[in-house]
Amino acid sequence: MLAIHQRLLDGRHPNCFTLARELEVATKTIHRDLEFMRDQLGLPLEYDRARHGYFYTEAVTAFPTVQVSHGELVALLVAQKAVEQYRGTPFEKPLQSAFAKLAAGLEGESGVALHELTEAISFRPQGLPAAELDAFQTLATATLEHREVLFQYQSLRKGAAEERRVRPYHLGCLANQWYLIGFDVDRAAVRTFALTRLSAVADTGRRFARPKDFSVAEMFAGSFSAFQTGKVERVVLELDAFAARLAAERRWHPSQELRPGPDGGAELRLEVSIAPDLINWILSWGEHAEVRKPRALRETIAATAKAMAKRYRA
Asked: What pLDDT digit, counting tens, does each position of 174-206 carry?
């Protein structure tokens, strides 16, 4: 249809036969496209019997490729506001440019001014990491083109950074933080790396074949957020009435099951891997939650709570 549109703008007066021959499609396809352009896109398209071809009866400045309703426009704005996690990455400018073009084409047609929606809806993300643009660009390119990378990685458990040689499989944004998932060549295992803790990224140019059986969905199927251990356990938390009300308002994990308890409390059940992200989440509930199962997790939370209490002793 864009090709047909261009020929109409050029004043060629094309018809179904000439268009089908030039575009190498059936004449029925051309006829169907012309009807869609006229009836669905509202283009001023008519047939000139004297010149045996189609033409625009009035000036057309742009091809109307996007038509949205008021509700769709609101959803589009919400999406634009929600992409804060892309700040500082190579996606930021292209996203801004794309939304600017969409806004320019929609302003005046939707029955609502975009600045009014901007004043009505906003997002305030918290704890966004400072992304290193050059490192992100190198990793994104290497991931797309299946090339090994070298970088220095500062593990939370070690005092000094170490060099890692990795075959990047996937870049993912989890809880407002970017992670690289790839095969650590020297350790012969798939690992997850936080982009905020890696530096001196270099593309080696050495290509690799990504395993056909690798699946990010399967890899994180049992994880609570960004950590995976391979072992899934049943976690049971006892929540008081305050925590139960808050827990019911959100879907924390696909396996979440909330069972009402006495005095307005509830029992929260999860099928997840025991990892730091889960432990930190449980601790964030403070005195409003208590781990019932498994015992090892209960002991970990108890030990952490005791250590915290010791720090705050007068």
From this structure: 766 788 999 999 999 988 898 888 889 999 999
Contact 289, 237 (CB under 8 A): yes
pTM: 0.58
Q: Where are the beta strands (DSSP E) in the chain?
A: 45-48, 53-56, 147-153, 162-174, 177-184, 189-194, 198-207, 233-239, 257-260, 266-272, 289-293
Say how far apart CA 199 and CA 180 lie, in whole Å.
13
DSSP 218-231: HHTTT-SSS---S-
pLDDT, tens digit, 9 for 90 and up, residues 209-242: 999 888 887 777 778 876 666 688 999 999 999 9
CA pair distance 194, 156, nearest whole angstrom: 10
Amino acid letter, 263: D
Residue 263 Ramachandran class (φ > 0 left, ψ -120 to 50 alpha, else beta):
left
Q: Report domain extents, the chain.
A: 2-56, 70-120, 133-219, 233-311
89 CB contacts (<8 Å, ≥6 apart)? 131, 133, 136, 178
Per the CB < 8 A criterion, the answer to whether 253 and 270 are in contact is yes
Domain 133-219 has CATH 3.40.190: no
Q: For residue 216, which amino acid is it?
A: V
The SS3 of residue 96 is helix
- Which 8-state DSSP code applies to residue 67? -
- Rounded to whole angstroms, the Cα distance separating 243 from 159 reads 37
CATH of domain 2-56: 1.10.1660
236, 293 Cβ separation under 8 angstroms: yes
Identity of the amino acid at 72 = E
